[in-house]
Amino acid sequence: MHTDPLTAARTRPVRPSRAGTLRRGVEEVLAYWELTTNLIARDLKTKYRGSVLGVFWSLLNPLLLMLVYTVVFSKIARVPIPRYPVFLLAGLVPWNAFALSLSGATTSVVDNAGIVRKVYFPLEILPISAVLSATVNFLISLTLLAALAIIFGVHLGLSLLLLPVLIALQIAFTVGLGSLLAAFDVFFRDVQYFLSVLLIVWFFGTPVVYSLDLVPAGLRPLFEANPMAWLISCYQSLWYYGRMPDWASLGAFAGVALIMLAVGWLGYGRLKRRFAEEV
Amino acid sequence: MPAAVTLEDVSKRYRIYHQRHDSFKESFLRRRRGVYEDFWALRDVSFEIDEGTTVGIIGPNGSGKSTTLKLIAHILHPDGGHLEVNGRVSALLELGTGFHHDYTGRENIFLNGALLGIRRATIRQRLEEIIAFSELANFIDNPVKTYSSGQYMRLAFSIAVNVDPDVLLIDEVLAVGDAAFAQKCFDRISRFRTEEKTIVLVSHDLKAVEKFCDRALWIDQGHIRADGVPSQVTGAYLDAVQVREQEALADAPGLGRDPRRWGTRQAEIARVEVLDGSGRPQYVFDSGEPLQVRITYRCPAPVADPVFGVGIYRSDGVHCYGTNTRAAHIKIPQIAGSGSVVFRIDELNLLEGGYALSVAITDREDRVTYDHWDRRIELHVRQDHLADSGLVRMPSEWSITPSTPSPAPPRGEGTIGGR
To answer: Does ipTM top 0.90?
Structure first.
């Protein structure tokens, strides 16, 4: 049963406890779930508006990228990884989802300045809906990955049951980090420009187009300290190696994702009070 | 009665940035040296609004009216004091906020409804009613970017009135579209009143505040100047406007680079006085009263063939009337030193509203502007005894021909007034 969106968290008790604040905040976000779905639908409808192939671009885009990377890294740079297209796509599809969600979330408040200034709603849903709409595209792209894995004869087994867990953790991580960046972006637009550069560096610093064992041993600790590398390795286990992910990586990423979500929620909650006047 | 809205010493500060510093570098380099100044939009404001009352907030632009509404709506948060709202709040601050231009009217009903916190089920159930109210049945599946501004506002209002709050906040959205639609909006808002909703309304339309509200609050420069019976508060407000206009005029020539003034100053407007029929200063007129404008000029060197002009604008920018000495076939051979010119209107036939006067001195051919005051003088027109509506009162009369009994209609076709 939904709470009425307008009742939630409107009255302020004299001294709200921290747990009470958190619960009310979450309740209010859920109460406005219909607005979230509307914003997601708006994003998706607008994204491919005016294009002939429309939503097929969600498949076409990773397919074309895969072809380019395969030619460059498998035929020219000779990365010694068998069934390279599956290996690549297993990491590239979730990475692209991450990159698109994060940049969408970062600009979400600034892009919606008009309503932030004039309408009351729980502002948390802006980064959340940006991440979720990118996730819809992610799910569509996953069908391409599944098809490719089957064509290349990857043994897809019970480990795939962990896929929803990976996606949920990825969403948590991205919402947390994205909320924080979105809040900073209101005050400094540099954040969005900096992010686009950062994402390129981060992409090449994460074993997506190469595997970790190709990294020189001396540099490996640096690459192993990257939470996205843990997550991507889990996806590669599922889709490329056809085995259970490394539990240590999964557990570590889960920890980081939940901490990121908490930090993002608190930081955003603190800064959002000035959004309407600063954006 | 319990209070629906309580403000206790509420203050709101804005940061006014002297230079927009949206980048790290500038903010780190300059923030400490004070790139922004604090501007207190509200300072220690306290009031309570009882449940079920309708309160109008009036005051000049930038006085803190809209800030107050946004605070009550929880869009802004106070920088001091305590604010409490009991019950559900809906704020209609700007109609059509969040409309998606590529969406059809129908799609926007759902998107905008969700934004206002109206349940999808409620919207679906009231969809036909909303479309009927907006009078856009034939256009509802077209993208709203093809709508006229009137159609756009009508759709927005039709959605907005479906909110079901305990406290309704309205910012200047009463006048929507043509007169007939505006009446419908008024009726709809009246229904909120009869439903015992608490309504807080910000308006420049003093008449609407008097007609509509149980109580009026006058906010000026972040403080409450008056609080009480609407007619008394609006009266006090108009008196103050009058005083302020006079003060503003007293130091008008000293103003440096006012964007509302331009010209070569070969002949300079030193003073403009708005006077009643007998020459006493007055800024609030009853519709139909005489009005005089005395323009005092000054010129360092003699100027030949000047033309004096006056224009009247409604507060929303509509040019109501303009004339000048050339149009009246008056030739002024030369002016020198200082002197004055009086422009007189025997019957100011404007209807109620806020107006502004422009005054100018130009050369004969209107090629050179010596001095132009663009809408720098405000005046108000009230109509206490007239029920006419619109912009101007046109002297008119009705004649009614006595009716003659009409022959009985042919049998079977006795329908009347088919539309």
So the answer is: no
